[in-house]
Amino acid sequence: MTACQAVVSFHGPQARIILRSLSPEAGRGMPRVGVSIAGSGNDANMTIEAADIAALRAALNSYLRWADVAMKVGEEVGK
Predict the structure, then answer these.
(1) Sheet holding 33-40, edge to edge
(2) Which domains does the chain have, with CATH numbers?
């Protein structure tokens, strides 16, 4: 299926928040897209594989927005 691929790396304490928050979503089926998230400690890597560039862009936009929300929620909870 892989015609396009993007790998996004997160480093620092927020990486754990992103890993825990987005891992359940990575297992869900999206048309023409496969997502995996792995990491340990303060590092997390998200790999998005898609059948075409449009599907890759859509998935990347969604997951980056969700990562941003997870980080913002983590900051608020930590206050």
Answers:
(1) 4-11, 43-50, 33-40
(2) 4-77 (3.30.310.50)
C-beta neighbour count of 75 within 10 angstroms: 11
| Prediction pTM value | 0.87
In the predicted model, is pLDDT for residue 40 greater than 70?
Answer: yes
**Integer Cα distance of 32 and 51 in angstroms:** 5
Q: What is the Cα–Cα distance from 28 to 79, expressed in whole angstroms? A: 31
CA distance 4 to 19: 22
Does the pLDDT value for residue 27 go beyond 90?
Answer: no
Q: Does the pLDDT of residue 1 top 60, yes or no?
A: no
List Cβ neighbours of 64 (8 Å cut-off, separation of 6 or more): 8
The CA radius of gyration of the chain, in Å to the nearest whole number, is 13
